[in-house]
Write a structure and sequence with these properties.
It is a single chain. By secondary structure, the protein is mainly alpha-helical. Residues 26-32 have low confidence and may be disordered. It has one domain (3-25, 42-200). 17% of the residues are buried. The protein has 3 helices and 5 strands; from the N terminus they run αααβββββ. α1 runs antiparallel to α2 (43-93).
Length: 201
């Protein structure tokens, strides 16, 4: 049986046990009043119910937490794939210049500001940008906005200059990007739930 199905089955069994505890308590034979046939829960019944609820929470909550983490990791993979594709498209349409360089000059130091403008606005073949697709500004936009890293919640980019080594992730930004080589990685330390380093995404 799949893991999620096992968890759901266990949860249903525990809830059924609680109902049986509460619904199956004996009736008092005394009838001194219209409501005297009901008696209060015993300490034992309450203790058992609390214990069952505690077990239920301990089993179910981690399962849904793991599912949520896996969803974020899948979203991260999707964001990475889409951004990398859009970077390749931009480069192909701008005389082999990747996004991030001021004025489209590959000798300039890349900036996050230029990356944002070039990816989210219209541009001409020399990487100049415009809010509207007029004149020669025929290309883009490639992104509606710079994406947020679904794991750390950051959308900022750490830009790596030409001939600089690609750094180790430190989690201070959402992404790490080196225009010279078009390397793009999530700025996340450690591994995902399956043990794969985030840097390998």
């Amino acid at each position: 049986m799949p893991r999620r199905a096992q968890t759901s089955f266990l949860a249903m069994k525990m809830l059924s046990l609680i109902r049986n505890i509460f619904n199956g308590r004996p009736r008092d034979s005394r009838r001194h009043s219209p409501h005297s046939h009901l008696r209060a829960f015993s300490i034992t019944e309450i203790t058992i119910a609390v214990a069952v609820v505690g077990i239920l929470v301990a089993v179910v909550v981690p399962q849904y937490t793991n599912t949520s983490q896996q969803t974020r990791e899948n979203s991260l993979r999707g964001e990475m794939q889409y951004m990398r594709t859009q970077i390749v498209v931009f480069k192909a349409q701008h005389q082999d210049i990747p996004p991030g360089y001021p004025q489209g000059v590959a000798e300039n130091s890349p900036t996050e500001t230029d990356l944002l403008a070039q990816m989210t606005l219209h541009s001409d073949i020399t990487c100049r940008v415009n809010q509207w697709p007029v004149g020669g500004y025929l290309y883009g936009p490639y992104l509606r906005k710079l994406p947020t890293n679904p794991i750390n919640g950051l959308s900022t980019f750490r830009m790596i200059g030409n001939n600089q080594p690609f750094p180790i992730a430190d989690g201070t930004t959402g992404w790490i990007y080196k225009p010279q080589t078009q390397e793009l990685e999530p700025n996340l330390e450690g591994n995902d739930a399956s043990g794969t380093p985030f840097s390998a995404y």
